[in-house]
Amino acid sequence: MNAITATKNLCLSSAKKQAAWDSNKPLQLALALPRICNAACLYCYTEQYKPLADSLGLAEIKSLLQEAVELGVETLVLPGYGEPMLHPLFWKVLAIAEGLGLYSLVFSNATLINDVVAERLAEKPVSLMIKVNSLDRGVQDRMAGRLGFAAEQQAGLSALIRAGFNRLDENGESRLAIDTLISKMTIEDVPAVVSWAVENRIFPVVETLLFMGGVLENQGELGYPEEIEAFNASVLERLNAMFPSRGHSKSTFGESCDAETYTLFLEASGHAVHCFSRREVIGQFPRDTLAEIWEKSRDERQKLIAGIDPRRGGGQGGCQACGHCQGRLDALKKLRALTKGGE
Q: Is there a domain that residue 314 lies in?
């Protein structure tokens, strides 16, 4: 069996990112469709977000994507801000993106995917990232907040596999990835999820808890901040033993995200933010052009790049925020202020 090395347009090479940094152009536009969901995940943080304004219409989205292409964007990301496939504009947005030459990366829970849907997706320039926290249906149902979720998801994943989404190209890239979360409930399950993914030529990504939203309400089940480091170390030790050549590191656990340095993040209302876990508004489309929004974030991006780019003395994937996702750091600061009366 050939080894999977990445998922198309999810895993960007260092050379590609460095070229984008040098030319000051974004590679991705992450557009959150209005939040509609068929799950109630214990760890969800987007559920707490109230719309900042009315959502963009289809004509505005088309204009947005056209500007993105002119700015250099190559990939449209439809994040799991709910379940994007539930939105009535989902297929139309994919069609517009395809018509403009954009590749699409869709974050989904796969519960709405059957053979017909999988084949329809397979005909488009699309990769998918599916949230799979456990192969134990009881655990997965509890994490997702409803009975029957795991069975629906496994059916969807099977349909995607039948449609060839896990077929590797000449670069060892597939079009299917899974994202799994380390928590008290899943600490024993994560290695099995990763092993299953690798066996099925699905690219695995492992993440840690983001202490905001649902996690704050469910720490007893998911874990407390002081427990997370031990959880991560335990999982890392087992993954390294299972896959010694894979080179698991901090970035495996979502602690060294550099997406902010090459991605434009827009909420459904057109409000631009640094990232979805750090909801600081920096502009609004169409009042501001995408070029203007990108320029507004330049100083902060340059600081992050300086800490990442080895050519500038930075680390291998870390950032100046202690090598951790800034959204996670901000959430932890707020949590400490709530629980300890200060940072």
A: no
Query: Are 259 and 23 in contact, with CB atoms under 8 Å apart?
Result: no
Exposed / middle / buried, residue 311 (Cβ in 10 Å: 0-12, 13-18, 19+): exposed
Residue with tokens 């559920």: 47
Beta-carbon count within 10 A of 256 CB? 20
H helices within 163-297, ranges in order? 190-199, 214-217, 219-222, 225-242, 290-296
User: With contact defined as beta carbons under 8 Å apart, do 173 and 8 qualify?
Assistant: yes
Query: Residue 177 pairs with which residues in a beta bridge?
Result: 129, 203
Q: Which of 147, 146, 145, 158 is nearest to 110 (CA)?
A: 158
pTM: 0.88
Considering the domain boundaries, does residue 336 fall inside one?
Answer: no
Task: Say what the pLDDT of residue 80 is.
Answer: 84
Q: What is the pLDDT of residues 269-295, one digit of tens each?
A: 999 998 887 778 999 999 999 999 999
Residue-wise pLDDT tens digits, 99-142? 999 999 999 999 999 999 999 999 999 999 999 999 999 999 99
Single-letter amino acid, residue 237: E
Domain that holds residue 136: 6-303
Count of structural domains within the chain: 1
- Domain of residue 253, CATH code: 3.20.20.70
Q: Over the stretch 143-176, which tens digit does the pLDDT of each residue have?
A: 999 999 999 999 999 999 999 999 999 888 899 9
Find out whether 331 and 339 touch, Cβ atoms under 8 Å.
Answer: no
